[in-house]
Amino acid sequence: MEDQPFNRGAMRQCFRLKKLSKFCHSDNWLHAGNYVAKKYMESVDRSVYFEDVKLQMDAKLWGEEYNRHNPPKKIDIFQMYVIELIHEPGSPLYHLEHFIEGEYIKYNSNSGFVEDSKQCRHTPQAFSHFTFERSGHEIIVVDIQGVGDLYTDPQIHTEDGIRYGDGNLGTKGMALFFQSHECNEICHALGLEGFDLSEAERQAIIEHHASTPSSATEIRDINLVGHVVSPTLEERTDLKRMLSNSRQRTLSSLSDLGSLPEDEMPKIEKQRCTDSSAPILAISPNGNNSDEGILIDKHLDEDSSDISSIHQPPRSRFLSTSSSDGYAYDTSEGCASSTPSNAASLTKLYEQRLFGLPTRSSRVQSEHVLRSKSCLHTGDSILGQIHHDLAKYHEIGRFACDGDESKIDWQSALFHEEHAAELGVPEAIITMAKIYLMLPHDVLVNCTVPANEENTNKGVEFMLQAAEANDRASMLYMAKAFETGYGLGTKREKSYKSAVHWYQTALLTTDHDDHGEFDATMSDPNYILLAAQAKLYLSGGFGLEKDPNKAGELYSEAADEAMAAMKGQLATKFYMKADEAWAQLDEGQE
Q1: CB within 10 Å: which end of the chain, N or C, has fewer?
Q2: Is the dihedral of CA 361, 367, 373, 374 positive or negative?
Q3: Cα distance between residue 314 and residue 97, in whole Å
Q4: Sheet holding 145-147, edge to edge
Q5: pTM for the complete prediction?
C-alpha cells in the first residue's frame, strides 16, 4: 500500500493498494489486483467500518431490485471489504474495494447536489428516486458516485434518521434530493411519479439545466421497462430466490459473460495466470478450493507494472462459504480481510422488511388516496414530513439566491407547508391554521397571506383539523370561536353546543396528542374550562338547551379545581355562581 493518499473525501482518504492472491501460486506483482484502501481521517469506533459495509451492501441490494425492473441501463454497487493490517501499530482497519479504471463522477450527494456538467446522466437520479418509492418512502439511496454505472460509497437516508452513519439526514436529506430532482425519461418509464414542487422551483430547475448539454440515456422500447408496482406474494418469493441465487452463483447483474456452469469454473481457475484472454476467477480467500469467489469479466494487463495502469474489473462479486464467525479471512502478507461470508444473511431482515412494503408514490394526490383507503392518522405521512422540511429550508434561506434572506421564496415555502398540512403533519396543520387566521406562529414566522374571507375559511378548516388531531390549543380556539362567533369564518355559525363539545374535549385531553406531544398552557387550566361550560349551560341558546342544574354542577366542580390549585378567591366566586344557578332551578320549579 502506498504511504500517501491519492484522493480524499469529506471523511475518508484513499490509498492505492496491490494484493496478491495466495491462489495465484506466484509472487509476480504483475498478477496482483489493484485495490483502493480507505481510512477515516478522524478516529472512529472500529464498528463504524463494519456498519459502512452493511450500508453499501444494503444499497447493493436496492441496485439489484432496480435492475429487476429492467431499466435501460443496469447498475451495480461495489462489494466492500474490511481489512485489518495486523502488523501495523494499533492494527488499523481499512475499507477495501477494487480499483476502477475510468473517470470517477459524483452524480448526486446526500444534500441535494446534482451533477449538471456534460456528464449529467439520468440513470443515477432515477435510481435514487426509485428507491424512495419502492421502499414505501422508508429510505432513499443517494450520494451516487463512481465510474459509469458502477457505484461506490452511497448513502442511505431513512425516514427516522437512524442507522447508516452520520450521513443519514433522515427526511431532511430526502427533501434536499427532491428539491433539485427533475424526473427524467427513465423515471417516467419506471412509472415513478414526480414530486410536487412549486412553479418557481420547477422553473429554477429548468433554468439550471437549460445550458447543460445532455448525455442522457436513450430510452429503448418503453414496454420493455418494468414499472414499479407492488409485488404479489408469489413475486416476493421469486424476488428473494432470485437475489439469493444471484449472490451464490451468478455474475454481477451488469456482467456481459452471464452465468457459467459449475463444471467450467475449474477450467477458468487453471487459466487465470497464464491465459490473458480468459476471465479471471479469484477463489475466495477462505482456504477452500470451491467454485465460489470473485468472478471477473475483464483481464489484467500483464505488460504493465504501474499500479495505475493495471485494469481491474469494474464489476465483481465476492462469494464465500461460511466461517465459524461469519467472516472469511485472508492473513497472507500480514493482512486480515473480512467480508460477510453470506451476503444474504447480512441483509436478510432488511430485505424481508422493505421488499414487503407497498410502493408509494411521490405525489401528494396519490398519497391522499392511500391515506383515505388506509385510514392513516395524523403524523403518519413521511411524504408530508418531507414537504414540511422543505418549507423550513425555504424559511432559513437555504434555496435563496446567494443566501440572501430578502429573496426567500415564501410562496414555495407556503406551497410545501400546505401540502404537509394536507398530509397530516401536526406542526404544519397548526402553522397553516395560524397563518391563514393571522395568528402568531413559530414556523414560517415572516410568511403572511392576504386577510380575506377565503383565507379565514381555510384557517378555520386547518384549525378544526388540528383540534380533531387532539391539539388542545386548537380545541380551545374552536371552542371560543363557536362561543363568540369571532374567527369562525363564513361557512360556520355561532354554536354553544359545539363550544361545549370542544371545551369538554380539551378538558379530557391531558396526556398527549396524535403527534406524541401535549400543548397545555397555564392560561387555560381545567377550572376555567369548567366555568366556561357552566356559563353556556346557564344562558342556553345557539343549539344548546338551557340547564341550570348542569351549570350549577359545573360551577361547583370548577370551584373544587380552583381550590386545589390554591385559587381561594376564584373558588369562592365559582361557589357563588353555583348557588345562583341552582337558585334559578328552584325558581323554575315554583
Answers
A1: C
A2: positive
A3: 11
A4: 76-77, 150-151, 145-147, 105-106
A5: 0.74
